[in-house]
Write a structure and sequence with these properties.
single chain
Length: about 375
């Protein structure tokens, strides 16, 4: 076998071509990391939002969108009384009738953006126990509480949504009374109102849903039975995790488009890299034939050529990983119902590393085999 140093010397003999190989592989791997972080970030935030202990009672026929759902106000009290297995704290059942609406919020400087509004009562904090008020307090009449990532949804600086500021919604001014966080969920991109305030502002007299927290996930059958027995309320019971699972499925084509875009751009880089390898290996046909003449087998030469390719592509993979950490890690991406952070979990990093290895090994085989296929006498006479 040829020594590994032989492959390294050949790479450094032509720095420009080596830089081209590194840049091409870095582009492909970076696209894989970007697409993977986007997909995993969106999927993770939707999965984290839905709790298996929470049940959403929606209007029949509106299972795909809580914003289109209409539920009678009295369903909140009737669900609390008619469903067994509801979690209690200090004698208060964890039942939250809520209104969800997407609309425009205008900031004090006149800029505006679209966000999700949620009208709640204090019981919402018993149902959504991942929510923590980190500044200010719970909103009263004429006030709102904003999520930690609302500024991303509104494309504004975070300090413009500080406690004590104002937001204009549906022509009414609301004071920002508090800020909350709900790590890893879409609720961090929402604006929470006193429920009566939101219903008045959007001229609505029905709830969007009733959210119930159960003592055990097995108690879902009680909520499902209640929705089927109370035909007058026209309700459907869904596990909150199932509802957000359906939303994840709804966004699957969008996530697929990110992979398709990355694949199309990456394909161009791969074909460009193959051309570079064909040119690099073809110029060395006589050199490779001379090595065969002095006793090195074609398998040894093939391994050396693959080593050269792997060194360049893995260098590009390392460069892509560094760029991904600097440019992607922690970046917030807003989408229609919230926002999520880009991250690089182990499966995404593994996909990037695997891409680099495949580019270096499989990508080098076609040009290497073509150069080694020529008969030895013809290869020695090549120009």
């Amino acid at each position: 076998m040829l020594p590994f140093a032989y492959a390294i010397r050949h790479l450094l003999r032509d720095p420009v071509r080596f830089a081209q190989k590194v840049a091409g592989s870095a582009l492909v791997v970076f696209l894989v990391l970007a697409a993977g972080s986007f997909n995993s970030g969106m999927k993770r935030v939707l999965a984290a939002t839905g709790s298996p202990l929470n049940v959403i009672l929606l209007g029949a026929g509106s299972e795909e969108s809580v914003e289109r759902s209409e539920v009678a106000v009295q369903a909140e009290v009737q669900a609390a009384a008619g469903i067994r297995g509801i979690a209690n704290r200090l004698g208060q059942p964890a039942v939250s009738g809520e209104v969800q609406h997407m609309g425009l919020a205008r900031l004090a400087d006149g800029s505006e953006g679209r966000a999700v509004f949620r009208g709640i009562t204090p019981a919402a904090l018993e149902v959504h126990r991942e929510v923590r008020v980190v500044a200010g307090r719970y909103p009263r009449t004429g006030e709102v509480m904003v999520g930690r990532l609302v500024h991303e949804a509104l494309d504004a600086d975070a300090d413009r949504l500080a406690v004590g500021g104002t937001l204009e919604i549906e022509g009414q001014a609301f004071t920002i009374a508090g800020r909350f966080e709900a790590p890893g969920t879409v609720m961090e991109s929402e604006i929470w109102f006193d429920r009566n305030d939101l219903m008045t502002a959007i001229k609505r007299d029905k709830l969007s849903c009733v959210v119930i927290r159960l003592e055990s996930a097995d108690d879902f059958k009680n909520a499902d039975l209640f929705s089927k027995q109370r035909l007058d309320l026209e309700l459907v019971a869904l596990r909150e995790s199932d509802y957000y699972g359906k939303l994840a499925a709804f966004y699957r084509p969008l996530r697929g488009m990110t992979w398709l875009t990355a694949a199309l751009i990456g394909a161009g880089a791969v074909f460009g890299g193959l051309n570079i390898l064909y040119a690099a290996f073809a110029s060395r046909i006589r050199e490779l034939a001379t090595l065969q003449a002095i006793g090195f087998g074609r398998v040894a030469l093939l391994v050396s050529l693959v080593q050269e390719s792997l060194v360049s592509t893995l260098t590009g993979t390392l460069l892509a990983a560094i760029l991904a950490i600097l440019l992607l890690e922690g970046v917030t991406i807003p989408f229609s119902i919230g926002a999520f952070h880009l991250a690089l979990p182990l499966p995404v990093i593994g996909a990037g590393l695997l891409t680099g290895v495949l580019l270096g090994s499989l990508g080098a085989l076609p040009p290497a085999l073509r150069c080694l296929r020529a008969p030895l006498p013809s290869a020695l006479r090549s120009a």
